[in-house]
């Protein structure tokens, strides 16, 4: 990713995109940040993303959308959430509501109007953010992990519309999985203070104390959106005693399953393209860590044998158990001379077949057979032993 800056300009968002999956080697990959940006601060030039810091408004949509958290905002929302919710530990009385309300800065005047008119409404903990687009599903889940009974998203038409497309849906589906559904409310700024109060009252009427109140919040060990999501879902499973089983297929979410067919030669093309650490080559095998995959598709595009298939699917149970699993293994070919494993059997067979497919047509059938035999025989030696074997064969023939 490239940056476009002017001297002395301090952009609200900062980016360290060495591990960006937007594209590589001519292949186009992840598009999450450019799709999320509404202010033309993030654009694409073929497989490269360009970040224009001058156009950045600091809404935080890019930081919210990137699973790897390669975009960063100066404002630490997690710390503010903890400060607001922590005073309620120990747990308040069972009848008390513990509701966190994220508010965009454009809606601050409605609260000011409420105060000036002395309008009362149920107590909520207000947390102001530049734009609701900067709130991710991890922020919402963290609120419940901290003991919140409900979460309200209150903002202008623009940012509530942007937020509600994916984030609230995913957070809601995860909460439903742990019997914590119907605890998220999205309220649009209709410039009417009484209507706002009515919406808050309507939401709080059906909210019951969260069963998570009695548990200590998990200590977040990671800083990327994806790893925090995994930690929070694992925490919810441990606290509720529920193992999630929901599988959402064909969803436009950054999760995917990978399968590899027998035509794989373990050539390292897919693993070298994976910037998220989901695919790793270990000699003759390939391991896959489901929770790390962000569905960028670079591995599938790069596979020369078309052996790898990526299927978009969110499997919540696999997110809890994020241990690597071997998804493909090939027998290793051993050098005839030194007995060192030097390539996979699948790669050996593929190269051997290429000798037949690309045989010279300017020689006779007997010479063709002999050439293929000699090439295959040399292939049975590792890269260190092969030159000596080739020289010996030339001396014998001469």
Q: How far apart lie the N and C ends?
A: 57 Å
Q: Structural class of the helix and strand makeup?
A: alpha/beta
Q: Tell me, what is the CATH class of the largest domain? A: Alpha Beta
What is the helix content? 25-40%
Residue share in β-strands? 15-25%
Description:
This protein is an alpha/beta fold and 398 residues long. It has four domains: 2-72, 2-Layer Sandwich (Alpha-Beta Plaits); 77-240, 3-Layer(aba) Sandwich (Rossmann fold); 251-329, Alpha-Beta Plaits (2-Layer Sandwich); 333-397. Helix content is 35%, strand content 20%. The protein has helices at residues 32-36, 61-65, 77-85, 108-116, 137-145, 157-164, 167-177, 193-205, 225-240, 269-273, 298-302, 316-320, 345-357, 365-379, 386-397; strands spanning 2-4, 13-15, 23-24, 27-28, 42-45, 48-52, 71-73, 99-104, 125-129, 150-155, 184-188, 247-249, 256-260, 279-282, 285-288, 308-315, 325-329, 332-334, 341-344. A hairpin with a 2-residue loop joins strand 14 and strand 15 (285-288). The N and C termini lie far apart (57 Å).
């Amino acid at each position: 990713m490239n940056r476009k800056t002017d001297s002395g300009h301090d952009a609200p968002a900062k980016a360290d995109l060495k591990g960006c999956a937007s594209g590589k080697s001519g292949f186009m990959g992840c598009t999450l940040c450019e799709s999320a940006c509404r202010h033309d601060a993030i654009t694409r030039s073929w497989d490269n993303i360009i970040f224009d810091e001058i156009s950045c408004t600091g809404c935080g949509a890019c930081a919210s959308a990137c699973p790897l958290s390669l975009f960063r905002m100066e404002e630490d929302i997690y710390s503010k959430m903890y400060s607001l919710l922590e005073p309620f530990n120990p747990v308040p009385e069972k009848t008390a509501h513990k509701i966190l309300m994220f508010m965009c800065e454009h809606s601050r005047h409605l609260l000011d109007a409420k105060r000036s008119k002395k309008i009362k409404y149920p107590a909520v903990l207000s947390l102001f953010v530049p734009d609701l687009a900067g709130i991710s599903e991890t922020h919402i889940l963290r609120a419940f992990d901290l003991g919140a009974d409900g979460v309200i998203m209150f903002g202008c038409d623009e940012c509530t519309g942007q937020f509600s497309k994916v984030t609230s849906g995913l957070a809601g589906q995860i909460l439903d999985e742990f019997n914590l559904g119907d605890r998220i409310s999205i309220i649009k700024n209709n410039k009417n203070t009484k209507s706002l109060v009515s919406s808050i009252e309507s939401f709080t009427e059906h909210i019951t104390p969260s069963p998570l109140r009695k548990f200590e919040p998990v200590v977040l060990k990671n800083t990327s959106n994806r790893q925090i999501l995994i930690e929070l879902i694992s925490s919810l499973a441990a606290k509720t005693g529920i193992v999630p089983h929901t599988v959402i297929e064909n969803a436009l979410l950054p999760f995917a399953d990978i399968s590899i067919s027998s035509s794989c030669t373990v050539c390292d093309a897919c693993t070298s393209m994976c910037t998220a650490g989901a695919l790793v080559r270990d000699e003759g095998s390939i391991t896959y860590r489901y929770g790390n995959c962000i569905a960028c598709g670079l591995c599938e595009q790069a596979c020369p044998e078309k052996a790898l298939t990526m299927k978009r699917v969110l499997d919540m149970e696999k997110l809890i158990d994020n241990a690597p699993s071997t998804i493909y293994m090939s027998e290793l070919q051993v050098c005839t001379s030194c007995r060192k494993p030097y390539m996979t059997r699948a790669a050996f067979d593929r190269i051997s077949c290429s000798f037949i497919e690309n045989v010279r047509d300017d020689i006779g059938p007997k010479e063709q057979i002999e050439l293929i035999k000699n090439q295959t025989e040399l292939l049975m030696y590792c890269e260190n032993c092969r030159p000596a074997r080739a020289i010996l064969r030339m001396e014998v023939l001469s």
